[in-house]
Design a protein that fits this description.
- It contains three helices and no strands.
- It is mostly helical.
- It is elongated, with a radius of gyration of 25 Å.
């Protein structure tokens, strides 16, 4: 493998992780503030509806620009 992980190393690492069982110690946020902050982890800055509206406007502007270019040629 080009990243340095041989099949043997992969198997060994998998065994080690299964023996450590980190998923049993991992916990999520406990406070309401922490839960509220974690709920924003996937936020990308706009809702889908806002994004769709912007994309519709951009699509219309690009269509108009293409029409203008055709008329100029």
């Amino acid at each position: 493998m080009c990243n340095g992980w041989t099949p043997e190393r992969r198997v060994r690492q998998a065994e080690l992780i299964r023996s450590w069982r980190p998923w049993e110690r991992s916990t999520g946020p406990h406070t309401s503030e922490g839960k509220a902050r974690a709920s924003l982890n996937a936020y990308k800055g706009a809702t889908r509806d806002e994004t769709r509206a912007v994309m519709r406007v951009l699509n219309e502007l690009l269509r108009e620009q293409a029409d203008d270019l055709k008329r100029l040629r």
